[in-house]
Structures
1.
Amino acid sequence: MEGVPTHRAARLLGEARRVVVFTGAGVSAESGVPTFRDDLTGLWARFDAQQLATPEAFHADPDLVWGWYEWRRDRVRRAAPNPAHLAIAAIEARIPDSTVITQNVDDLHERAGTRAAIHLHGSLFAPRCVAAAAHPATVPDTEPGEAAQPREGRRIPPPRCTSCQARWSGRAWCGSVRRCRRRRWMRPSRPPPPARCC
């Protein structure tokens, strides 16, 4: 609604029966979450984020890639939803048939109150095992700063799947785009199809 006067935008939202909100890195950057390509520091400054966020990198060096995902999760845990996240959650609450679609892999929409954001590139907080079954896993709760000490990151062996003992992977891979099937978005319960976005 760029260029639409605020009062007109408010009237349009008030009359809407359905709204789709699409967000990208800018909304989370306002919360201090660096964009995917912006802020690689410490150990991670030596690596290309687009190369680390691939299944190939995980299979070549799982401890390195899992450590990077833990570092990223830690950065997101330190952030808080900003007014944009809260406004989007308020729109969804007022207009029940709304959909929030995000390119972001953080959980700031959910923490702001959005009920079911669709994460096009997966979520840092919804890892899966690398086995063909891709069992979902739960990321253990940790205090910000606890998982990725020292702050510049470290290698961390990935946990094992409780169902099949395969290693967990981040599953927010570069190039993982969810596809629309019969007008219903595939939920993060399925492994992402191969695609390239980066």
2.
Amino acid sequence: MTHKEVTRYFMSIPEAAQLVIQAGAMASGGEVYLLEMGDAIKIADLAKRLIHEMSQKVKGEESEEGIEIQFTGLRPGEKLYEELLVDGSARKTKHPRIMVAQDFSLEWAEVEALLSELSVGLNDNNCISVRDVLLHSGTGYVPQHGLNDLLWRDLESEPALVAENVVPIFDEPVQKKVV
């Protein structure tokens, strides 16, 4: 397991399918629906329950024998918990377990301007520039970790290795390392 505090939401396939079909029936076009999934469950607790269901014990907690749970640490980009909405605003519908998101949106001209700024950073392989554009975009972007792009790290440490290969992205070439 990655971390002892990781939580996730679970629901049965029939339950999820019913809610999705009902949300689809409510749709008039473009809405983002949120399904009430109950309480989040700690993955560590779920693992312990599964161990007990197999009539085993958790090694280290209950005995020196049994199944050991090892924690490896969060991977880059992995979150401890799921967020259904960035800003947390949703309005109720007629169904008690279906809500409609009220997330903010950008006008097309603003999206085009952001894409233009992002393409400059991407074409320069400049992760700092790309992150700064996203941070100042007004979208609520909040990075969970530092920069983890492997290509960007290679560019910073050994630019000569990367300069040999170019792949077009947008209208400008981008350097790419061949592995």
